[in-house]
Amino acid sequence: MSSSYGNHVKITIFGQSHSAAIGVTIEGLPAGFSIDMEKLQVFMNRRAPGRSKYSTPRKEADMPAFLSGLVGNTTCGAPLTAMIENTNTRSGDYDNIRDIPRPGHADYTAHVKYGGFEDVSGGGHFSGRLTAPLCIAGGIMKQILEKEGIEISAKIKEIGGNAVQPTKAIEEAMERGDSVGGIIECTITGVPAGVGEPMFDGLENKIAQAVFGIPAVKGIEFGRGFEAAKICGSENNDAFYFEGDTVKTKTNNHGGILGGISSGMPIVFRVAVKPTPSISTEQHSISYEKGENAMLKVEGRHDPCIVPRAVPCVEAAAAVAIYELYQYRYRYYEK
Fold it and tell me: In which residues is FMN bound (predicted)?
């Protein structure tokens, strides 16, 4: 199971939704950086469950315990490992899923791949719970990048197709025992021109790889994205101009990336998040044991929409990707 990301700064995420703990190990952080723990916890709280009526009622403090890599709150050069205890699990809610997989979830594919030995409780290693360790890593890297003048901010663009009243779409789905997805937009400012390693380590590649580590993400587009396929080059091309000694573009259809390399303009991308598979409405599925079709009614605690809690996860994934390539650029090209 590939749960690692990066080469120059490597993160490895471990645990399952209902295991004793989940966590992350980060290798390659610079020594001497003091982590603002209060700021990190505020970031973690944005993702944590049980904080609003639109999220799962499962309550977890999501307070990281650092096991190595720090002296006080300052990085010491050793691999940094942090863990979060799982304290509010109800594995019995998933008993029927051991035999009947949830449509739209990884239950079936995990069952095939791991021969029935997969952990189905809470979704196991495929759960959105594993984005908490991602947010530890991303939250730390956001702080390091901010010291370099790089800011990462994501927001909800729409939910269930509703860009004006996104929470209304969630409320309507909850009333039906259903769920909805949505679109998150992320903007990164302050990245200098020249960051990115084509062909396969370009900015789009690395950001997409990290973002697709977030469960339920089904699509990503940069700049004008798929809309660019419908227009002409004369409309899509961004004219260059000088502002003092700085090269800028009059528009930003390219989303701050050309040829996999940052142009110096804001990096902009959008992420499509599917509806939560676990819904209370009865669904058609199959029974492994009986080898026949079956009906499934999902029990337990689930988000009617994970988009609000996924916003900091997108920021975290972006931070991990940007920091990886930023480090590469200054490690190899700025000596």
Answer: 125-127, 259, 274-278, 301
